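Fold this sequence, please.
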Amino acid sequence: MDSLIAASARALAAGDALGALKRVALREDPPALALRGIAMAQLGEHPRARELLRKAARGFGTHEHLARARCVVAEAEVALAMRDLSGSPRTLASASATLLAGGDTVNAMQARLVAARRLLLLGRLDEAASLLDGLESAGLPPVLATVAELSTAELALRQLQTTKARTALQRSRRAADRAQVPALLAEVADASAAFERPAARRLGGEGEQLLHLGDVEALLASGALVADACRHGLRAGSEWLPLARRPILFTLVRELAAAWPGDVAREALIASAFRTRHPDETHRARLRVEMGRLRALAAPMADIEATARGFVLKPLRGREVVLLAPPIDGEQASLIALLSDGAAWSTSALAQALGASQRTVQRALVELEADGRVRAIGQARARRWLAPPLTGFTTILLLPAALQLD
């Protein structure tokens, strides 16, 4: 490695992308191209960074397995920053294995972290946990140790394990202090602020109460029957009834929980579930069918009894009923939560993260754009979507698969 390449690599490790570019900007050899690509990524020029890293990977000879694997890992990280989630995880896993076999444990761990962060974006928490378990940040460089601890903290927050998340954030703060990279210090500070912001609202007869993450964790552990409008399901102790793919049933649950201990009139349930102000006998018949389905699904946790004017929710074992609402209203709360991370998302990546069809996501984006809540940049396949950061509360509970209970 010549002196300019070494100096450029040291500048990149310190977060000085411009200093790194000054040393290799005019060079076209593969190591210089790779460093230029990483520098452009740090400056936010992700498409150009990806192009340079691919060119560098092609430039390395077939015998330079480690160099090519490092380019694959760097490109995967750029793709993650671009919210391009379409790449095959096998390619990254193969590069990680090559690096590990070649003794480059640092870059192998970086590949593992990129894979884990991609899984977190997709809401596949169990798979992300398997990659992060046993990952020791003590032997990693400060920058990579910070990312590792931030990923561990995010996973813990998504699983509502606030004590574990706080511990990981403390370790990430110490690592970031050693790294002294401004972007990492800001990311740690923002993650720590999630504990201080409201995460949800508790709705009931006593009005609205703002809850922080620790409050939500305590509520879910209390054994109350919780109609969770953040993740669209019904929770009682360790029992979880997911209703995200049954929106009519969850609408009925939400209305019944909001009125508890009272009942809800049939006309009100029909208006909410079927969105009509002029119900007829067909709507009443459909309501009976949907209530029968809900009664069967919720039987381990609650009874649903008919009354003279409608229906009432009767939790088993004398439980209290609580309606847990998101910090923002609207059907597209999870979509807005994803977009508010500051990155530019493609429609396909949003659909993949939300587990929805692209057409459904496109319709939602058009509605949000008409309301001025999101904006599009680029055209056709290059179109990306952005939203301003959501201030005043944390969106942890709105992210896909925020709590794996089933």
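The chain has a mean pLDDT of 88. Residues 229 and 325 are 5 Å apart (CA to CA).
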